[in-house]
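assembly run, all chains below
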Amino acid sequence: MPSAKDKGAVNNAHALPHPPAGLNKKTDRMPHFPSAVIRRLALYGRVLQILENNRTEKISSKALAEHMGLNSAQVRKDLAYFGQFGVPGYGYHVRSLRANLKRVLGTDRQLRLALIGAGNLGMALMTYGGFSRQGVRIVMGFDVDRRKAGSLRNGIPIYHVDDLEKRLRRDLVDIVALTVPSDAAQPLADRVGQTGVSAILNFVPCRLMAPPGVRIHDVDLTIEIECLSFYIK
Amino acid sequence: MPSAKDKGAVNNAHALPHPPAGLNKKTDRMPHFPSAVIRRLALYGRVLQILENNRTEKISSKALAEHMGLNSAQVRKDLAYFGQFGVPGYGYHVRSLRANLKRVLGTDRQLRLALIGAGNLGMALMTYGGFSRQGVRIVMGFDVDRRKAGSLRNGIPIYHVDDLEKRLRRDLVDIVALTVPSDAAQPLADRVGQTGVSAILNFVPCRLMAPPGVRIHDVDLTIEIECLSFYIK
DNA sequence: TAGATTGTTAATCGATTAACAATC
DNA sequence: TAGATTGTTAATCGATTAACAATC
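ok done. output:
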């Protein structure tokens, strides 16, 4: 019997990534939905939006699957996780399916987002229109630069990061997007954890420890680039 | 063009005892590697970089797995896809494993990237330092606005999009990042397909048809937001 | 009704994890 | 040598796909 002694030869530096914190797998009391299914739900939504714009009234799982490059059984199964949205012999009513998916994803209500870090990427996101189309409203930005504090960008107020907790709480922010230098990310994530914010969209290329009750979602361009690099070798 | 068409030969002294797993696919030509494995490779690289900065010389699959929140067998299996990088009874030499992974991913050479669309996101990416750290050099930008053409941004020349094909070919661009309005995306992707560019990093929230020989990689913020929305309901 | 298509169960496929001989 | 840890095969787990009774 291999008595694998847990003997970390690594001196644990503070900057090291870490196993994902907290709730995972089946320890959740909530039913677990594969994250791939959730992502496909969002993608179905995009196809349905186009169909609705085209005045298409109904669609079969087979046709929807073809639009997405999937198997029709997978489409039916994905949708059946969340309800019986189809009609046998008919298919799915585009408009109602779309509305149902919005409800399931929670994109039928508005989310309030704050940006921490008003550098280039942060500023770009403030003027980026794509969020508002998905029901996300950027309600404020933060920066360490006192010259930026007090100004507006695209109508969005920028505050000094000293006021972070106060402002996030007062304006009931749901999501924070982190666009700061790597060193600053973890302390800011910890502070965000004190405020009732539910999720962090992390653009910083480092792994963050999630404060309790906060979901962290990484958007890591450098990792994407590295994957691309492999395939174009 | 990156002439490096060479097989990913294992620079380890040991010969591969077996062809890498995944060979028995429909196309016997190139072995197929799960994209999840490729992504983890990039993430291992990040952990190894930190370890190397900390002067850590060796690491076991178990310790590496813990840093990533994975199973140690998975780490060994992921690495073994591409060669025998470890030493039984010892583990992996951090520096050489990191070098090997860079070679496998192709991040040991410089990639040349052009940005199409010098709007907010495009401009932000031009000043974003994260790419250069991963060996990606942004060599030019394009825009439809003739006032932007001819100018520099962060030392990067911006050309008019009329010159797209000419410039991409002349400067041997490897990757194009698309940060344009949705309507413009597909025609531009088609034009890019004529130039020898190997990959498109698509920031536009719509599904593009890949021109032959071009790999498209979507970075879709609105989909990310919708997934987040589901979990914070 | 006859044809079409759903929701769901069973079969298949692929990816993760456990186990262990090889070996440093 | 004795202990540790690899690479690899076998077992398990989960996700995709096929099949089909239900039903509009």
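Chain B has two domains: 35-105, 111-225.

The longest helix of chain B spans residues 35-53.

not gonna interpret more than that til we talk
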